[in-house]
């Protein structure tokens, strides 16, 4: 007798039993599809690419090219439509800093170049705006505020505005040694020696290997010892400066400040060696050449040697305002009016602050007035400028003492 076929079951229980007997259902092996890549506006892409190139040129020390790329980056960031951050993260730039932060970085670089190129008022406004950008990187905001604070002094001698802006930077980053360094330098210029010393002590405390802060701190201590007529302490500071230059032989600030100290003490040969070292460390900056030339005037009253260094300064750095001014003043003393006018006009083109511009224009107009007087009153050139020689040499000596890099 054949077995009877099993009776087919129906209902939920039957279906459950059937599923169990057939084993687990086949798993879905397909991965969930990722969202499509978001296409950024072309202007925003160009802004990021320009910023990247600007920063690359900084690394290469090709600042003219960097300046142009920075300006292009700012222009493209400003003209690009806004983008949702979620969409941005799904773009090919999604792993980079967000657009608002990148824009602030571009503005900082662009403003830095503007300040160096003479557009200091515009630069200050731009830097203050970066400092207030909430979504910018804190380091970018602090850097912008430090530079803006310094411009308050450079442009307007506005110490209160300067110190307030430094305090804004410290609110963002209380442990930033750069803020204390620059505020200390400003306090030193304002003859607030104790405040300067406190700031520079804090900078060194926060960053013990901060060679620039150490040099500025030591210079402040040296100036304080002199002001208090503590000769033995001043001598000790000079010895400490020598040790510091040996510890940080590649630090331009250390070499330049020590050279300034030695110049003030009349140790011209040793000072000259340090200026030579500074030129070696920074061969494309006109400033060390200009200061070495000033030293020749104070040390040996050697105008020919001074002119050689001034001319070398504008050869390597055609925008060096100090070297152009000094060449103009040397030409004035020799009675070479047209040459003096040429140098002063070039200096005016490079003036970075209103005070510098006013000073250079006054020099130029003074030369024009002397030319006019010689022509109208038939005064010999040699006689006209003989009376100015002593004043000129005094100015050169004062500039050598007050100099720095």
TrEMBL record:
Membrane topology qualifier:
Single-pass membrane protein
Q: Does this entry carry the keyword Mitochondrion?
A: yes
Record bears the keyword Disulfide bond: no
- UniProt feature coiled coil, ranges: 41-68
Question: Which Pfam families has this protein been placed in?
Answer: TPR_16
Q: Give me the TPR repeat coordinates as residue ranges.
A: 177-210, 252-285, 321-354
Q: Which family does it belong to?
A: Belongs to the Tom70 family.
Which protein, by its recorded name, is this?
Answer: TPR_REGION domain-containing protein
